[in-house]
Amino acid sequence: MTDDQKTTHFGFQTVNEAEKAGMVHGVFTRVASKYDVMNDAMSLGIHRIWKDAMMDWLAPRPGTKLLDVAGGTGDVSFRYLKRAPGAHATVLDMTESMLVEGRQRAEADSMADRLDWVVGDAMALPFKANTFDVYTISFGIRNVTRVQDALNEAFRVLRPGGRLMVLEFSQIPNDLMQKAYDLYSFNLIPVMGQVIAGDRDSYQYLVESIRKFPDQETFAGMIRQAGFGQVKYRNLTMGIAALHSGWKI
Ligand SMILES: C[S@@+](CC[C@H](N)C(=O)[O-])C[C@H]1O[C@@H](n2cnc3c(N)ncnc32)[C@H](O)[C@@H]1O
């Protein structure tokens, strides 16, 4: 099978691999201006607690170099820089409109000399091997066409001793809770997308993409396959989201 015949998923649709990135780019270009307000509305502000939990586990160190892939409007990088004096963050994202929104945030101004904003693809990072101390990707990796390629790239650009941390929606181990969560997400989130962002379809894609993402153990296996050691995960809010950590050792 040639590359242009391979298929993948875009939410619950099956699409050619070659088409997916363009479709994901379309989603985030459309929602960029409402992205931050929708995050608070959909999660009732809980995404902030999850991102803080990410920082607690990561424990950012002064003077380190962070690469925040699929960094969007900068939430993770801002948190990292606030906790690590003298650190530097590179926010990379394939959707320029998301980066443009991030650069307009008040935090971006006050941290401008410690931040870079780069348009690029998680599967082909425009950086040399062994460059960064920390690699983060928050609610980004489930949108990437070939997740394993992105993890392999994370391993390549981290320096030896560097750390990967992924924050992503995950699977709730309890069936009843999963059903309740599905009811909420499939019925309410697309409607909120329509009302707040004027875009139901993009938020329908977002909830479907959550269901297609591998469970905690399977994803931990993919991180190990990329070469990472000491791979561990922590569930957040009963597994609605999870943090995965690995080291380049
Ligand atoms: C849900 S947003 C997450 C933004 C931010 N990290 C956060 O936690 O709020 C997902 C982001 O992933 C980006 N993205 C998706 N696929 C990508 C890829 N292959 N390379 C780089 N960025 C990608 C999208 O453009 C979008 O900005």
UniProtKB/TrEMBL annotation:
Q: Name one Pfam family in it.
A: Ubie_methyltran
Please state what class of enzyme this protein is.
transferase
Q: Which residues form the signal peptide?
A: none
Q: In which pathway does it act?
A: Cofactor biosynthesis; ubiquinone biosynthesis; Quinol/quinone metabolism; menaquinone biosynthesis; menaquinol from 1,4-dihydroxy-2-naphthoate: step 2/2
Alphabetized, the UniProt keywords read: Menaquinone biosynthesis, Methyltransferase, S-adenosyl-L-methionine, Transferase, Ubiquinone biosynthesis
A single Gene Ontology molecular function, please? demethylmenaquinone methyltransferase activity
Note the InterPro entries from the entry.
Answer: SAM-dependent_MTases_sf, UbiE/COQ5_MeTrFase, UbiE/COQ5_MeTrFase_CS
Q: Name one GO biological process term.
A: menaquinone biosynthetic process
Coiled-coil annotation: which residues?
none
The reaction(s) annotated as catalysed by this protein in its Swiss-Prot or TrEMBL entry are:
a 2-demethylmenaquinol + S-adenosyl-L-methionine = a menaquinol + S-adenosyl-L-homocysteine + H(+); a 2-methoxy-6-(all-trans-polyprenyl)benzene-1,4-diol + S-adenosyl-L-methionine = a 5-methoxy-2-methyl-3-(all-trans-polyprenyl)benzene-1,4-diol + S-adenosyl-L-homocysteine + H(+)
CDD domains, A to Z: AdoMet_MTases
Q: Which residues bind S-adenosyl-L-methionine?
A: 73, 93, 121-122, 138
> What is this enzyme's EC?
2.1.1.163, 2.1.1.201
Similarity comment: family membership: Belongs to the class I-like SAM-binding methyltransferase superfamily. MenG/UbiE family.
In UniProt terms, what function does this protein have? Methyltransferase required for the conversion of demethylmenaquinol (DMKH2) to menaquinol (MKH2) and the conversion of 2-polyprenyl-6-methoxy-1,4-benzoquinol (DDMQH2) to 2-polyprenyl-3-methyl-6-methoxy-1,4-benzoquinol (DMQH2).
List, alphabetically, the NCBIfam families matched.
MenG_MenH_UbiE, PRK00216.1-3, PRK00216.1-5
Name listed for the protein in its UniProt record:
Ubiquinone/menaquinone biosynthesis C-methyltransferase UbiE
Protein's organism: Gemmobacter caeni
| Encoding gene, per UniProt annotation | ubiE
